[in-house]
Each structure stands twice: as structure tokens, then as C-alpha cells.
Amino acid sequence: MEVPLEFFMRFAWDLDRWPKEKIQTFMEEWAAREFGPRFAKEIAWIVSRYAKFNARRKPELLSPETYSIIHYREAERVLEEWNQVVELAEKVYAQLDPEYHDAYYQLVYYPAKASAVVNELYISVALNRLYARQGRTVANQLADNAERLFKLDAELVDRYHRLGGGKWNHMMKQTHIGYRSWQQPPVNVMPSVMRIAVPDKPIPAVAIEGSELAWPTNQAAILPVIDVFNKQTRYIEVFNRGSVPFRFTVTSEAPYVRLTPTDGIVTNQVRIRVDVDWDIAPYGRQTNRIIVKPEVGEAITVFAETFKPREITPEDLDGFIESEGVVSIEAAHYTANVPGKEGMWQEIPDFGHTLSGMCVFPVTVSSVMPTSEDSPRLEYRIYLFTTGQVQVVTIIAPTLNFLPDRPLRLAVSMNDEKPQVITAVPVGYRAGEGNRDWEEAVRNNYRKLTTYHTIQKPGYHTLKIWMVDPGVVVQKIIVNTGGLKPSYLGPPESWFNIKSRNIRKS
């Protein structure tokens, strides 16, 4: 907590010196003061990253269920981000003057590495449980890896306590793995893993992205759609339920559906990359068969759906595009920013779970009901293929109503409809009084506001976010047209092509 505490106190002492645009400058100046200027930018980035990622979900609140291992490759993406932080932290440590090693471990390396280890531990446990249910032999290896990570966590703490002859002894003694409630467990508790018996023969099976099932089974294996805008890469995993390796081949009936690799030997599992050559792919929605043929057992058919509309192209698009039944938008990627009489929406860099946050400044502006003249608003141009009722999920910071006589409200509208005013935190709200909403906001470090809107016809539409009360920070907006899947961070941002971003008068 040394770095955030110092920033908090310096910010309180001199607000004007540290506006939102200079937060990273503060970090770099801090890093240069503590470790010299040579690696100041790198160290500032490391500290900023581990703080941001831990703010998504505090380590003691993580569980195997936190990040989805099925949808949006969420758990994979989280691990990749943590691995980038640790890789740079190790690289800097190797080149840093030895005189800084103890302080660097305590302030920079340990928080990054230990946090990455705990995240990987829970994700390994989640994969272990899924793979055990699917009968994958690799489930036992993941159980071993989870136990290794649990031991590594203790080793990192032990090294921390031995630094500088015990200078920081006991500082990391609080337990942080195995919480069941707000009360800490007496000791760190290894999450339970599953082990399976592995037959002494080859038993081929197949799993696909976006599903918990394993084939052969009586349900169709259908990959999530691949569209010409997002150009997604999907995967098929050929895995073994036995201990004897086997060969396989995989072929596509459509020449534009590309597979890598197209054959191989499976000891534990092999991931096959599925993508599309869009230069020769036909227009419209196409369903294509992919045949996985192991040398023993039955061939398995996987269906890959491609989508290349005639009515709109990536080059012509101006805004965000619907894909997989959603439009996912980072709040800072507006197509128009319309100021009000007193203030306007501005970006807080690197704020929140994913990219950043948008908040109205100055924060002392008056509350105002949404009108075209008075209320600052953000506009997002989106292209929808779906009609009918759609859901808009607006993800905001977990702010409380810091002024007791004023609620925290926001308004959302689609096209020219009357804005829907949503109360995030009502007047008289008192955090902690057995309030489930407050507990969830603390656990998740965000709030979700939901509205419903009717889309009369496909094509371009304009989503509008209106300020009602200052102090609301918008992080992300999800337009759910029927395809939103369960996840913690929400879908990755949809593909967009914004030809002009403007700040204009009402």
C-alpha cells in the first residue's frame, strides 16, 4: 500500500499538481526517486498494472469461478496480462543495481509475482475441475500445477520476510487464499482439485471454444461465429482420455476455413486454430463442417459459422458493429461528446477494470435532468443486425453518494427516445448496513446499471449516456441483443471504425 498511500496524501495536499492526466507522471517520478531514472517508466508501468488488475478483484476475493474459462477466453486473457507484468518485472530485476534488489522485491516484484501466482492458481483449479469432468488426462497435470503454485505462494512470502535480514518480517502473514466470508481463514487453504484415473489406452475426444461439453456426445458441436469485422480466431481441442498417444487429422469442407495444424499426435491435448480467408469467403451466413478424425474411435464433426454481410463492410463502417449478439464499448471510445452548460465528460486514464473511465468535470457541477441543452452526454454510433428489445448494461465505478442529500443517477437513451433515468445510489443510502448491493459493489469494484430499449430496424443507431448527477464514472457499455455470455469483465471491446470523433455543442 506504500504507493497508493503516498499518492493519496500528496493528492490531498496539492490537488492542482496531480490532475487525472498526470497520474502516470506521478508514478514515473516515484519510480525514479526510489530506483533511479534508468527503469522509471518500466517500474511505473509494472506498479500501475498490478494495482489495476488487483482492483478488478482483490486477491483474497478470487475464486475458481471469478473469471470465465469458457466465454470470451477471459481467463486466458487475464493470465496473459499478468504474465506480461511478471515478465517485465523479472527483466528489470535482472538489470537493476543490486543495491535496489530488496526494495524492488518488496515494492514491485513481490506484489506483481504473488498476485499473478494467486490468479493462476485459481484459474488452474477451474480448468482442472472442468477437464476432470470432461475426462481429460491433462486434468491431473493441472492439479499438480495448482499445488505447485500454492507452495510457490508460500515461498514468495518467506523470501519477503527474509529480505534485509528480516526488515519486513511478518508483513505478509495475513492469510489470503481460501476465504469463505469476510473473516480471514486461520491458514491459507489450498482450493480443492480433482484427479482422475487414466486408462492405459488411447481414448480420443474433442472440446471446442465456448462450451463445457466434450465430444463424442449427442449434441452438435458449434463454434462461436467468426465474422469479417472482428476476424476472430476460434479453437478446437483434440484431447486424450487415456495414457497412450494417438494420431489425428482435421479437414474443412470449405476452402476458406483455415485450420492449423491439420494433423498431429495427441499425448495430452492439441489446440487447432480455426480462422477464415476473407478474400475468398462467400457473403452471408455460412455453416461449414470441420471433420476431426482420430486414428481410433469415431470422427467428430464441428460446425464453424462465418458471417460476411453485403450491406456493410469493415471499410464502410462508421462506429461499432454487433457481433455474437453483443456490442461491447469502452466508454472513452465515444463518437460524440456533447458538453452541458457547466461541464463535460472527460477521460480518467487507466481507470477501472479494462481501459479507462469517463466522468463529468468539474465534479462540482449541478445535478440536471437530461435535456439536449443542459446535460452533458456521450454518444456511441452502433450498427445492429438485431431488432426488437435490447438490453444496455452500463458499468460504472462503485461510488457511493458522498453528498447525503443527493443520489447518484445516470440516464441512458437510444436514438431520439426519452432518456431513462437510473438511480445507482439513492438518497439515504448507507453502506454496510446489511446491504447486498453495497457488498456486491465492494466485491466487484463496479456497479451495473441495466436499461431496455426497442430497435425498430437494423442499421445504425445512436446510444446516448447522459449525466444527471456528477461523480458517476462510466467504464464500459454492453448492448446485449441476445448473445451476452456470463463473464466477469464482460466481452472484449467490439470491433469499431470511428471515422470522426467530435466534441460539439448541443
What does this 3D model show about the protein?
- β14 (344-348) and β15 (357-361) form a beta hairpin.
- The protein is α+β, with helices and mostly antiparallel strands.
- The strands form 5 sheets. Strands 11, 13, 16, 18, 19, 21, 23 and 24 form an 8-stranded mixed β-sheet that branches. Strands 2, 3, 5, 7, 9 and 10 form a 6-stranded mixed β-sheet that branches.
- The mean pLDDT is 95.
- The chain folds into 3 domains: 2-165, Methane Monooxygenase Hydroxylase, Chain G, domain 1, CATH 1.20.58; 204-308, Immunoglobulin-like (Sandwich); 319-503, Jelly Rolls (Sandwich), CATH 2.60.120.
- 26% of the residues lie in helices and 27% in strands.
Radius of gyration computed on alpha carbons: 25 Å
**What CATH first level of the largest domain would be assigned?**
Mainly Beta
Outline, from the CA principal axes? globular
Query: Biggest sheet, in brief?
Result: 8 strands, mixed
Helix content range? 25-40%
Strand percentage lies at: 25-35%
SS field, number of helical segments? 7
In the CATH hierarchy, the architecture of the largest domain is: Sandwich
Number of strands: 24
Structural class designation? alpha+beta
Query: Roughly how many Å apart are the termini?
Result: 44 Å
User: Can you tell me the residue ranges where pLDDT is under 50 for at least 5 consecutive residues?
Assistant: none
**Global mean pLDDT:** 95
- CATH fold-level topology of the largest domain: Jelly Rolls
Query: What count of structural domains?
Result: 3
